[in-house]
Amino acid sequence: MNDWVVKTIVLGYDGSEGANRALELAAHIARRDGARVVVVSAYQLGSPDTDGYKWARLRDEAAEVAQKAVDDLQAVGVEAELEVPGGVAETVLLEVVESREADLIVVGRRGQGLIAGLLLGSTSEYVVRRAEVPVLVAH
Q1: What is the mean pLDDT of residues 129-135?
Q2: Alpha-helix runs per DSSP H in 12-84
Q3: Which of 12, 106, 136, 28 is nearest to 73 (CA)?
Q4: Taking Cα atoms as reference points, which of 41, 42, 32 lies closest to residue 7?
């Protein structure tokens, strides 16, 4: 059996307890394999009449929450970067996996994030059912 080496990990992160457990697992795997981690913190776009300022504020809040994960990863020697796409969390996670040619997705079992619509409830289930790469769900 060949050893599977992970090169790129996509981490769904919303600042919740589950996301923090996922962060720990992603860090462990990344350090073991020398992988880079792309921290994804999606924000739910508002209605069409939502002004640009509100969208920018949502994006900034999502980025602020996830920057901590990037900083924590870099502090232990893991190459990490942040992506903050607008949209539904499960959909944008899969889009980032495809665009980054990721080998693994790591998510928390259940998000309780600070930002509405971010990795809540069925996100991990959706990702597990539709991802074309392995998914590690942190409990």
Answers
A1: 95
A2: 17-33, 52-75
A3: 28
A4: 32
User: Residue 69: what pLDDT?
Assistant: 97
Domain presence at residue 3: no
User: What pLDDT does 7 receive?
Assistant: 98
Q: Where are the alpha helices (DSSP H) in the chain?
A: 17-33, 52-75, 89-100, 123-130
Task: Judge whether 2 lies within some domain.
Answer: no
The CATH number of residue 22's host domain is 3.40.50.620
87 vs 9: CA distance, rounded Å: 20
Model confidence band, residue 116 (pLDDT cutoffs 50, 70, 90): very low
- Tell me if 1 is assigned to some domain: no
Rounded Cα gap, residues 122 and 106, in angstroms: 14
pTM, to two decimals: 0.87
For the chain, how many structural domains are there in total?
1
126: containing domain: 8-138
Say what the pLDDT of residue 123 is.
84
